[in-house]
Amino acid sequence: MTDDKNHKTCFHCALPVPTGCELTVQIDEEQRPVCCPGCKAVAELIRDTGLTRYYDLRDAPEPGVGRPPEEAAEWRVFDSPEMLDAFTESHDNMREATIYVGGMYCSACSWLIETTLDKQPGIKSAEVNPITHRLRLRFPAEDASLSGYLATLTDLGYQPQPLSPESTVRPEVTEQRTALKRLLVASLGMMQVMMFAVGLYSMDFQGIDPDMQHFLRLVSFFVTTPVVFYAARPFFTSAWRGVVGRKPGMDLPVSIAVGSAYIASVYATFTRGEAVWFDSVTMFVFFLTLGRFLEMRARHRSIDRSAALSSLLPNTATRIDGEAHVVVPVSQLTRGDRVLIRAGEPIPADGILATGTTSIDEALLTGEARPQTKVVGDELSAGSINLDSMIEMSVTSTGSDTTLGTISRLSERARYARPAFVTLADKIASYIVVALLVVATGVATFWYFADPDRAFVITLSVLVVTCPCALALATPAAFAAAGSRLSQLRLLVTNGNAIEALSRATLAVFDKTGTLTMGMPRITAVFVTDNAWTEKDSRVIAAALEHASTHPLARAFAVPDDLPAVTSHDIVVGQGVSGMIDGREWRLGNAAFVGGAAAEDSTATHVFLGVDGNVVAWFELEDEVRPDAGQTLDTVRQLGIATALVSGDNRVAVESVAAQLAINDVHYECTPEDKLAIIEAAQKRGETVVMIGDGINDAPVLAGADTSIAPAHGALLAQTSADIIMLGDSLSPLTTAVEMSRKTMRIVRQNLAWAIVYNALALPLAAAGYVPPWAAAIGMSASSLIVVLNALRLNRFE
Amino acid sequence: MSILYVLIPLALLLLAGAVWVFFWAVGSGQFDDLDTPAMRIVMDDDTKPDEEDKP
Predict the structure, then answer these.
(1) Which chain B residues have a beta carbon less than 8 Å from that of A121?
(2) Across the interface, which of A111, A114, A119 has its CB nearest the CB of B53?
(3) 3-state secondary structure A100-149
(4) Cβ pair B32:A51 closer than 8 A
(5) Ranges A28-37, A217-226, A463-472, A728-737: which has the least confidence
(6) Taking Cα atoms as reference points, which of A671, A667, A669 lies closest to residue A643?
(7) pLDDT in tens, A231-288
(8) Is B40 on the interface with A (CB under 8 A)?
(9) Are the beta carbons of A128 and B36 separated by less than 8 Å?
(10) C-alpha atoms less than 13 angstroms from C-alpha of A381 in its C-beta half-sphere
(11) Cβ B15–A120 below 8 Å, yes or no?
C-alpha cells in the first residue's frame, strides 16, 4: 500500500521517503530506498558489520524509530571522572553502567546492540533486557570510554540514556520471575501427579494393591501440596480480597474448587477413602497459571512507554553558575537554577523563560504541531523542544515533578492496573458462585438423608464437574488470544473491555488533524513568479535555507540534492529564515518578511521565497489526507459503522476533508467540551461510539467514548486515555480491529455457551450420582481444554 | 513392584533438585529475556564480510 511510486517508505526507519529523495542503500544485492543521510549511514553501518539479518528478523518498525538524530549528541562529558562515578558502579577494576536504550522495539534490536557492542574493544559484556529496554555494560575501569559506547549506540540509530545505578530490580522483572517459578511448579507438579494418576486409574480396573494405592496417593499429596500452596497462591489471595471487598470474582469459585478438591483428597488419602482428585487439582492450577502467565507477558510487551518518556529529556544541561557555563547531568538540577538552552535543544526541566524570545515545539505533550511563541515569564515544559534561539530559563521543578513526569506516572499506573479483561465473566461469576454453593449444599443435604455413605463423594463430584473453569477461561482466554494476535497486527490493546465495546460500535468519530490527515504539511504546489528561476531552483534554495532550521514546517522543504552553502544564516522568530547564497540575500517566510503580497483566503499555508527583496516563488503547503483514509472509511461503513468528523479546525478545512472522505456528519470549530457533548448526545441516542483521535485535546473525549483508539504518533496523553493504540503510520489497522473484535466476541459467546451447556448437562448427572469422580475430572479438564483451543483459533485471524 | 517404593521417592528427590536449580536460574536473571535467545540461534551463523573479531 505504501510501496507505490509516490509513497515509498524508508528501508531503515519506515518513514515515508520525501518526494525526490534518491538516496539508496545496497542490501542483499538490492538498492533499498532510505529517507535521509542518517538512515543511510545506519543501514550501511549495519550492513558493513555483517548484521543485515537484523532486517529479516525484526518486527515491522514503528515509523521513525531508529532514525538517527540530525545532530550527533555530545557524549564526551560522560568520560569525566565525576560523570563516570555518577553513572557507573565499580567492582574489582570493572565499571558497570546501566543505559536506557530508546528506540528499540523488538528482540532483533537487542541482538543487534549486543553483537555490535561485543565487537567494540574493551567491552567485557553487554546485555540488553528487551522488556525494560535497559542495557548493562561492563568495561574495564582504566580505559573507560563510555562516550565511545554511547556514540556507537547513536550510530545504530538508538537514543541511549545513561541511568544512575539502580539498586532495585524493575517491578516487571520481579513479576515475570515469580510467575515463571509458579508456572514451573504447576507444570512439573501436574506432570508428576498425572503419572501417578495413570497408575491409580489403571489399578482401579486391574485390581488394587491397597498399600500401593495408599503409597501413590501419599506421593501425589506431597507433589500437589506445593502446587496448591505456592503456584495457586495468587488465586487464593485475590479470592480473599474479593470476599473482603464484597465483590466475589472468578477467583473465588476457582479457589473453592481447588481448595475443596485438595482438602477432600487429603482427607481421602489419610482415611483411605474412595477417591482422590490430586490430578484434577494440579491440572486445573496449571491451566489457570499458564493463562495468567500469557496475559502478563502480553501486558509487559505493550511497549514500555513510560520509560520511553524519560528518554525524551536530555542527559545534560548547561547550568549558568555566575559567569561560568557548566555542563551538569540533568539529575543535578534543582529549583532556582538558571540553565542555558540553545536552539534545537530539548528543555531539561519545567521552568520560567528568563531571557530571550523563542518558539517551542510542544508536540510531545500536546500533539500540537505548530510551534508556540514564548516570551519572558512564560512557562516551559520539560521535554518540549526549543526551536529558534538561545534562551535562559529558571528551573521550577525537575524530574518526576514536571508535567512530563506526571504523565509518565499516570501511564505507569495505568500499565500496572490489571486489564479489566474479565468483567463480563466476573458478573456471571458472582451468580455462579452463589448458585454452585447452594446446589452443592442441596445435593449434600439430599444424599445425607438418602445415602449418607455416598453423600461426600457425590458432593465432591458435583463440585469438580461443575467447577467453573471453562467459564472462568472463556472470556480471558479469548481476550488474551485476541490481544496477542492484535499486537502482531500492530494494534496494542491496553484495555480488554475495548474489544467488547468495539464489536458493538455503531458510530466512529474521527478527529481531523493527524488522524485523517498526515498532521504534517507537505508542499502541494509551487508557483514561480520570476522567470529567471525554475521550480527546481526554488525548491533547492528553500531547502538550503531551511536546512538548519528546526521549525516543523522546515521538514516539508527537505530535498535530497546537494544544497548550496548558506552563509550568515539567520532565523527571525515567527517570520522566517534568511541567508546569503552566492552573494545574494535570500529570504524564506511569510509575505511581509519576504516582501510579497499576503495570500488570499485559503485553507493552505503559503510560504514565500525572495531574493534581494523581490519575490521569486511561493509554495503552497497543505496537510494532506492520509492515502489510506478513504478506503479505510469505506470499509468501516461497510461494516455497518457510521462515520463522523469532529474537529477544532475551521469550517473550510474540515469540510474539504469531509468531502474527500464522504463523511456527512461533520462538526467544526469544536472545543474539547463540544466534542465530548457530541459524543454524549450520540450515546444518549443509543449509539456505541468509538473515538479515533490523537491530540491532547482529544484526551477527555477518548476517555468519554465507549472505546477509543489513538495512533502511536500522537500526543502521549491521548495514548494514555486510549483503549487501543494503532502502531504504524496508517489508518487501515482500524478495520482489522473492528473485524477482530467481532470475531473475538463470537468466540467468547461460543465459549460461554459451551461452558453453560456442559455444566447444565453435567450437574444433574453428577447430582444424581451417575458421574464417578474420575469421569468428573476428565469432563472438567476436557471442557476447559475445548474453551482454550477455541480461543486459540483467534491466532489464525488474518 | 516394591522397587517403586524406592524409585518414586528417588524421582521426587531429582524433581526437587530440578526445581531448586530452576529457581536459582530464574533468580540469577537467566530467564529475564525469553525472546532474544530464540532469535540468536537463527542469527549467529551470520555472514561476516571480514572475519576479524575483537581480540
Answers:
(1) 54-55
(2) A119
(3) EEECCCCHHHHHHHHHHHHCCCCCCEEEEECCCCEEEEEEECCCCCHHHH
(4) no
(5) A463-472
(6) A667
(7) 999 889 888 887 887 766 667 767 877 888 898 889 889 988 777 878 878 877 887 7
(8) yes
(9) yes
(10) 17
(11) no
CA distance B55 to chain A (A): 8
**Residue A413: is it exposed, middle or buried by C-beta count within 10 angstroms (0-12/13-18/19+)?**
exposed
Contacting residues of B for A57, CB less than 8 Å apart: 39, 42-43
ipTM surpasses cut 0.95: no
Residue A36, amino acid: C
Burial of residue A439, with CB atoms counted within 10 A of its CB: 0-12 exposed, 13-18 middle, 19 or more buried = middle
pTM reported for the whole predicted model: 0.62
Question: Which alpha helices (H) appear in A171-226, and where do they start and end?
Answer: 171-206, 210-226
Name the amino acid, one letter, at A604. Answer: A
Separation of alpha carbons A39 and A257, rounded Å: 58
Give residue-wise pLDDT tens across range A381-434: 887 888 777 888 988 887 767 776 666 555 555 444 444 444 555 566 567 666
Phi first, then psi: give them for residue A727, nearest 5 degrees: -80, 160
Quick one: average pLDDT of A477-494?
A: 76
| CB-based contacts of A436, cutoff 8 Å, min separation 6 | A253, A256, A463, A466, A468
**Residues 205 to 244 of A: which have CB under 8 A from any B CB?**
209, 212, 215-216, 219, 222-223
Strand A642-646 to A665-667 pairing: parallel
B13 touches A at CB < 8 Å: no
CB A494 within 8 A of CB A418: no
Neighbouring CB atoms inside 10 A of A402's CB total 22
CB contact under 8 A, B12 and A219: yes
Q: What is the rounded distance in angstroms from the CA atom of residue B14 to the CA atom of residue A492?
A: 42
Q: Is B28 on the interface with A (CB under 8 A)?
A: no
Is B7 touching A (CB cutoff 8 A)? no
- As a dihedral over the C-alpha atoms of residue A767, residue A771, residue A776, residue A782, rounded to 10 degrees, the angle is -110
Instruction: Give the mean model confidence (pLDDT) for residues A447-458.
Output: 80
Which of B4, B13, B39 has the most A C-beta neighbours within 10 Å, making it the best mutation to test the interface with A? B39
A262-269 contacts, C-beta under 8 A, 24 or more apart: A262/A224, A262/A228, A264/A456, A264/A460, A265/A217, A265/A220, A265/A221, A265/A224, A266/A221, A268/A217, A269/A214, A269/A217, A269/A218, A269/A220, A269/A221
**Which tens digits make up the pLDDT trace of A60-103?**
665 555 555 544 556 777 777 777 777 777 777 788 887 877 76
